[in-house]
Design goal:
11 helices; 11-stranded mixed β-sheet; binds threonylcarbamoyladenylate; 2 domains; Rossmann fold; 356 residues; binds magnesium ion; 5-stranded parallel β-sheet; single chain
Length: 356
């Protein structure tokens, strides 16, 4: 049985809060809203509880989980003290969509959380209901996105319900999430003699590279390659898995001239339709009227990429609901949050990209 608790106006009532927090402390697995996407949480110290996350999602066990905390004193219990550079990031971006990788203290978390690594990803979410729950539970909460593995991350409680009802103990419904894409995962390497410090972006997300560069003058910000060599161990283990794939095959069309991109999208759609396939296209408000397909999804506006991020995962789910076999997606500019949007679109398209 999966229990449902509903927050009203970003506030979980006292009974709902007490019950959901108790379930977490007692080893249950519970979905809750954050400002990025819904997380599927368990007490990060209890191996049996954390194992339920992997079972419910069907997640590979070599992919470590992010640990969510409500305050800095919890951080001090789990990880080595952050140096000046990381502290600056935490001051600027916490609570918020930034996950920092830090060396973990021995024996403070279940080894399942870190998948055997000597580091842990920590994040303080900027969502009143998440913070309420984390404070009331009083434990560090391991939480990946609350989707079944391979599906788009959930941005509403209904998405979680569709994927995981009956397989988890409860869902805290706090309405639609804000950012819509996961947190940015970063790892800082301190300077070593002559060699300067580097901030590695392991996964682009809610905090943009531009924001990180502006926050850290004099420090190199390096974006991890998304086209990883599958034989090498990736720095963020999650990067080697095909993620967010809609059930129909998706192809991304990218180019500098919008008319050419639109013409190519339409040609691909027409050919698929001629083959008898159910077609779908992911585009933006500005271009939706220019395209014909069985399912046309206008995902936000090119003039405001935050709206695209906000709606992206729900848009991908629409193609599954419509039973689309063939999907084309229009690329968006890669500035700001656009880098994270394009990262997710490339993954959803399994790197099938047409450049025009
Ligand atoms: O916004 C978010 O971050 C959401 C919400 C629920 O907080 N959580 C989330 O978790 O996206 P998940 O498990 O789906 O993604 C965790 C990412 C993976 O790419 C994983 O490989 C990486 O963080 N990661 C976790 N611990 C790591 C570590 N110690 N070293 C390197 N990468 C790590
Ligand atoms: Mg995920």
């Amino acid at each position: 049985m999966t229990k449902l608790w509903k927050a009203a106006m970003d506030n979980l009532g006292p009974e709902e809060l007490a019950e959901s927090a108790r379930m977490l402390r007692e080893g249950g697995v519970i979905a809750f809203p954050t400002e990025t996407v819904y997380g599927l949480g368990a007490d990060a110290r209890q191996t049996e509880a954390v194992n339920k996350i992997f079972l419910a999602k069907g997640r590979p066990s070599d992919n470590p989980l992010i640990v969510h905390i409500a305050n800095r004193s919890q951080m001090a219990e789990l990880a080595a003290p952050p140096d000046e550079t990381v502290s600056r990031l935490l001051d600027l971006f916490w609570p918020g969509p930034l996950t920092v990788i830090l060396p973990i203290k021995p024996d403070v978390l279940s080894p399942l959380v870190t998948a055997g690594l000597s580091t842990v990803g920590l994040r303080m979410p900027d969502h009143p209901v998440a913070l309420q729950l984390l404070k009331a539970a009083g434990c560090p909460v391991a939480a990946p996105s609350a989707n079944s593995s391979g599906r788009p991350s959930p941005t509403t409680a209904a998405h979680v319900y569709d994927d995981l009802a009956g397989r988890i103990d409860g869902i805290v419904d706090g309405g639609a999430t804000g950012v819509g894409l996961e947190s940015t995962v970063v790892e800082y390497t301190a300077p070593n003699g002559e060699v300067g410090g580097v901030l590695h972006i392991l996964r682009p997300g809610g905090v943009s590279a531009e924001q990180l560069i502006a926050a850290l003058p004099g420090i190199e910000v390096r974006e991890a390659s998304i086209l990883q060599d599958s034989s090498s161990a990736p720095r963020a283990p999650g990067m080697k898995y095909a993620h967010y794939a809609p059930r129909g095959a998706m192809t991304l069309v990218q180019g500098s001239a919008p008319e050419q991109v639109l013409a190519r999208l339409q040609r691909e759609l027409d050919q698929a339709r001629a083959r008898g396939e159910r077609t779908g296209v992911l585009t933006y408000r500005e271009h939706a009227d220019a395209l014909r397909a069985d399912t046309v999804v206008a995902c936000g506006s090119l003039g405001d990429l935050e709206t695209v991020a906000h709606g992206l995962y729900a848009a991908l789910r629409q193609f599954d609901e419509a039973g689309a076999d063939f999907i084309v997606a229009e690329a968006c500019p890669e500035a700001g949050i656009g880098a994270a949007i394009m990262n997710r679109l490339r993954k959803a398209a399994a790197n099938r990209i047409i450049y025009v």
